[in-house]
Amino acid sequence: MTAATRDYYEILGVARDADAATIKSAFRKLAMKLHPDQNPGCKVSEDKFKEIGEAYSVLSDPEKRAQYDRFGKTFDVGGGPGFGPGAAGFNDFSDIFNEIFGGGFEDMFARGGGGRGPRNGPERGADLRYDVEITLEQAFKGMEREIVVPRAQACEPCAGTGSEGKAPLETCRTCNGAGQVRASQGMFRIVRTCPACHGRGQAIKTPCKSCGGRGLTQKERTLSVKIPAGVEDGTRIRLSGEGDSGLRNGPPGDLYLFLSVKPHSLFERDGADLYCRAPAPMCKAALGGEMEIPTIEGERTKITIPAGAQTGRRFRIKGKGMTHLRSKERGDLHVELLVETPVNLSAKQRKLLEEFAKDCGEEAHPQTQGFFDTVKKFFDNGDPLVR
Ligand SMILES: [Zn+2]
Ligand SMILES: [Zn+2]
């Protein structure tokens, strides 16, 4: 198992909000314990040693850490290239170990990581996040939408080389192109990443004026994205290769669309089912009749209210809910009745209601009558707990 499938914070045994010093100290302790010199020939320790290196290389870099915090889980689910060895490369970890222990780790990583050499190889571009808010109707129908994404792209004037006028890179004079420098320290011979070229072995003579030698510039790109019908609040869509461009012909990162669905004024959603509360005038609920109900597709449908319907009565309209993702099926629309007591009565209406009330017998309000009878019994018998 690589660290890509395990939580980096867990690997280092630190809290998610641990500061840089805590992370460094936790890593140091683990690195001392798991160091191959302490456990010669032990494959488990060696793997663990690399795992903590991988975790630390991400968590010690504020940019990578922020990205991991945002995307960590998604990588595993989507199966995309994560922060595993493919993304960070063991070459990067050896720098970290060297920074802490003072060098000499190249050989080990060369064995495990597929070769050590000048670090001028391709580097994968960063992943990007883009938040999209849509309405419930749009989630129902699905939609195509244009988005403008600022992202790093290869600088045009230098063709991504970072060198002014696309001039070829020169061999680094400090390391003569090796990407590493050697020095003796007591009885040890130490190999370090070349500080002049950062291990690339090659140096830019004059940095490109447009990108300052980075080889990348920030540009806006318009993309047309398809949002499928039935998406839910919190759905993430991965657009492969639409993140930042890679360095030195490295593959681009991915773009993640984070969808949120706005609350609706009429409908509440639970998966594929929709819920709607529909007020009905008291008289209509008493007399019964048809009632129009809106649907999410912007049409009208009808329910038949039986005479004497009460508040809370539910009606199910089959197949008028949300669309299921990647299916033609639809959920149901549940309507809950809310009987409305008339207000702001005119003198005439009041008189009519008073007459109506006088005319009403017990049988018109069985619930009220039932409650009244129970209350009467309660007082007549007496309740020792109440007194
Ligand atoms: Zn160099
Ligand atoms: Zn440039």
Helix content: 25-40%
Q: What portion of residues belong to β-strands? A: 15-25%
Q: In which order are the strands of the major sheet placed?
A: 10-11-15-14
Give unreliable regions as ranges. 73-92, 102-118
Distance between the termini: 69 Å
Short note summarizing the structure:
The chain is an alpha+beta fold and 387 residues long. The protein is built from eleven helices and 15 strands. 31% of the residues lie in helices and 24% in strands.
Give a structural overview:
The chain is of the alpha+beta class and 387 residues long. Among the domains are: 1-116, Helix Hairpins, CATH 1.10.287.110; 277-381, Urease metallochaperone UreE, N-terminal domain (HSP40/DNAj peptide-binding domain, Sandwich). 31% of the residues lie in helices and 24% in strands. One zinc ion (ZN) binds next to loops.
